[in-house]
Amino acid sequence: MENSNVPFLKNPLEKSIRRFVMPMGEGALAFFGYLGSSCTLLWKTWIGFFMLPWGRLIANGALPWRWRALIHDRQWALVIDQMEKVGVASLPLVFLTSLFTGMVLALQTAYQLQKISAELYIGALVVLSMTRELGPVLTALVMAGQVGASITAEIGTMRVTEQIDALQTLATDPIRYLAVPRFAALLLMLPLLTVYADMIGIFGGYLVGVYKLGIGSTLYMNMTWDALRFKDIFTGLFKAFVFAAIIATISCQEGFETTGGAEGVGHSTTLAVVISFILIIAADCFFTALFYFVFP
Amino acid sequence: MIELINVAKRFNGHQVLDGLNLTIRDGETMVIIGRSGVGKSVLLKHIIGLMVPDEGQVIVDGQEISRLDSSELASLRLKFGMLFQGAALFDSLTVGENVAFPLREHTQMGEEEIRTRVQECLGLVGLKGIEHLKPAELSGGMRKRAGLARALAISPKVILYDEPTTGVDPVMADAINRLIKELHDRLQVTGVAVTHDMVSAYKIADRIAMLHEGKIIQVGTVNEIRSTSNPTVRQFILGISENGSAGGGG
Q: Which residue of B has its CA nearest to A163?
């Protein structure tokens, strides 16, 4: 790399130090810039989320014969539409992932526990691993790959084809119109999908425990329920909320920041998935440690 | 009235607008011409507040755009309609929903009224009866006209056109030009168009301004521009490339 913009530097040592330090500074600036704009987006989306017409949701949602009104409500229609794309469309993938994970978990632990004749505890191990860790994390990773990528691709395409500019010229806030419905849908659907994933995972473990290892059906379920505490489910669902906020914020952020045509859309989609993955794993580690120390 | 005073804008160290001054009067159609990549679209985006100048002021009806908060800016934008280069129709919505979009967002009109207004706007641009189609099913020229219908829906006072005739065939370009002229004559809207298509510029303009190296180098009526003595403007309007041979002015 040539430092053509600093021609006064003749000293080679100074030059090489600069060559080393300048990219670090640029990297740090880019990093904090990114952090700043993501936090701003998260903040604005939160405000938008609380500004949603919750009164209308409660008034219409409580009575089944008024659900039609809810579907025709402009704001909630956007959220419901996204909930379908985020939630219902993800059911098959989450089903398969959780089922196989539950089964593999049971088989792998059986491999060890058989040595000490403790296969009975497989049920407890599967349910705790699923609710505390694998349910929320795997669902979040699957959603980041499937839903997060499609959010970034959609918003990114809207950005490069000037549709976001068009929204603004029509005096419509892109955050309210695009980011808030996706954020709300993810925040509502990811915990639900996590509960679903937990149940399917337990079912996977049950299949292996009962039909492969020959543990009694009632005994297996008793071992499962006895081990489970409210805290296990709560911490899992809390993580799911955090992961939902991460996926929604990063995906929308990457979408809004897209530049450079079709190639740019591809690039920011990849980046959104990568950053979401890293943040999900990091947040998982952080919250697991937090719960471990705060609620032992 | 729209005034741009000493507007400057840089992108990644590249000075795009450099102390630009321009006044657009109420009711006139101002055409801004200039080479590709000279910053014509950037100029247009400054007028509607999609971009904020690094220096200088953009004043619309006495209000400085960069000083407005988001709700004031939103209400100011309702006076504007903008036709984007690629039309920028929302491709998740049908054409009818696209045109109805600003009406649903900003007016209390009932569904029946909205349907009437949508048909009226699509009729104005000669696209009656395609409400149910998705933007992807339209040709380039149809998309541009649908984009114009959407811009017209809330009866704006000012319409901004970003390259209205680029990428459409000459016959369609003429139809679009005639449409812009008609809107100006019939509805007395102020028009600001950026283009490098001189046929279009001569046809629709009341006044023409030439943007070159970040500044407006000449403003004048169509006849004044035609008979200009400024060599840069002459070179552009006659479509003469640097080495003197005739070439792509369009």
A: B88
Which chain A residues contact residue B77 at CB under 8 A?
168-171
Would you say residue A211 lies in a domain?
yes
Summarize pLDDT for A72-125 with one digit per residue, the tens: 788 888 999 999 999 898 999 999 999 999 999 999 999 888 888 888 889 999
Residue A251 located in a structural domain: yes
pLDDT for res B168: 83
Domain extent at residue A164: 42-49+88-294
CB atoms B86 and A161 under 8 Å: yes
Quote the number of domains for chain A. 1
Tell me what percent of the residues of chain B surpass a pLDDT of 70. Answer: 97
- This prediction's pTM: 0.88
- Say yes or no for a CB contact (<8 Å) between B105 and A166: no
Whether residue A59 lies inside any domain: the answer is: no
Burial (0-12, 13-18, 19+ Cβ within 10 Å), B217: middle
- Nearest-Cα residue of chain A relative to residue B80: A169
Q: What is the pLDDT of residue A7?
A: 53
The answer to whether the CB atoms of B84 and A74 lie below 8 A apart is: no
Residues of A in contact with B75 (CB under 8 A): 171
What's the pLDDT at B25?
92
B104 touches chain A (CB under 8 A): yes
Average of per-residue pLDDT across A212-218: 89
B236 touches chain A (CB under 8 A): no
Burial readout A258-295 (b: 16 or more C-beta within 10 A, e: otherwise): beeeeebbeebbebbbebbbebbeebbeebeeebeeee
Helix (H) or strand (E) holding A1: none
Let me know if residue A22 belongs to a domain. no
The DSSP element (H or E) to which A114 belongs, if any, is none
